């Protein structure tokens, strides 16, 4: 059913056109086409952030063989948490999230959370070199400890680990300023226990009709918000059934019908769900890995055929994705990295896949490094190289995004 607007009505019911939007997206991708007038953008770039007290974004250039060359580091103008989590303990993945940095579709800007001082930075990306320039570090007034970002059609959406409102919507201005247009209390809107809500990811559906929030592993919920024309959000549809403590999620590219995949910590699961015109999820398929723990992070190949799940135990699991939501385990440990610090696992976290589907890049938060892999048949991974970032604690690294 149609959900009422929380702030302002839409002129058109975009949710009803969700399936058509997915089909158009898949067709354009398959044809390799797009807007001929799209501005030129940098290519073969990769970025991560240090999440240190003086937060920085580290820039890499990707070579044709998939290896990385480290370039400059650019201050975000904000403060990270330096690996200190909400409980006060120092450990990897202090933000407990996916997408701590995000890039807009035209490749002109990068967005980074600064959880230490509750700001969100907007940095421009040079179209020729990929180098970053800070435009503005914006005060994030909605909540505390921003941890995940999603950009869609001129608006930036942010989740927060703490505070009365755990989700906010911002209009991105040309000078890098963020104008808040909405703030949302996930617990109240979703009928969830407040103490259990600590969102781990925000994402936009491929057609921009929905903003989807994994509301926290304690809440066991995924919330789908319809998007109004002014970037504000409608009342959410909240799904809790068949979700096994979800952490990250992604829409399957090229699927015949909208399909949302989510990692599940309970049972070491990767699950697929149909995504209805109202934003409701219904289980389609799932598969479990063995010999790993804490499957949290998720990335899909551009053709939608393969999924890679990063595990807190330090391994990457691979899955085949088929028609009608079929999920098949390929390899529980397609890749892994040993611990660099005694008593701390390497934590295979945020990953990013090159647009041609040939290379996978993974941030190992417990090892303070980014590892490059080639992707072979059946999702086989071959390590190409690694780059240690050199953060002060060796644990604060967070987020990964590329072009």
Describe what this molecule looks like in 3D.
The chain has 403 residues and is mainly beta. 5% of the residues lie in helices and 44% in strands. It has helices at residues 18-31, 186-190, and strands at 45-49, 56-62, 68-75, 101-103, 109-114, 119-125, 132-139, 144-152, 155-162, 167-172, 178-184, 201-204, 210-214, 222-226, 237-239, 246-251, 259-264, 269-275, 281-288, 295-300, 306-311, 315-321, 327-336, 348-353, 359-364, 369-375, 381-388, 398-402. A four-stranded antiparallel β-sheet has the order 3-2-1-28, with no helix packed on it. It has a four-stranded antiparallel β-sheet with strand order 4-5-6-7, with no helix packed on it.
What structural keywords apply?
single chain, about 400 residues, mainly beta, four-stranded antiparallel β-sheet, 2 helices, 28 strands, about 5% helix, about 45% strand
Number of helices: 2
- Main sheet attributes: strand count, strand direction, barrel closure: 4 strands, antiparallel
Elements, N to C (H/E): HEEEEEEEEEEEHEEEEEEEEEEEEEEEEE
Beta-strand residue fraction: 35-45%
Mean of residue pLDDT values: 91
Question: Radius of gyration, rounded?
Answer: 19 Å
Measure the end-to-end span.
37 Å
Q: What portion of residues is helical?
A: under 10%
> What would you call the structural class?
mainly beta
Low-confidence stretches: 1-38
Dominant shape: globular
| Sheet with the most strands: spatial strand order | 3-2-1-28
Strand runs, count: 28
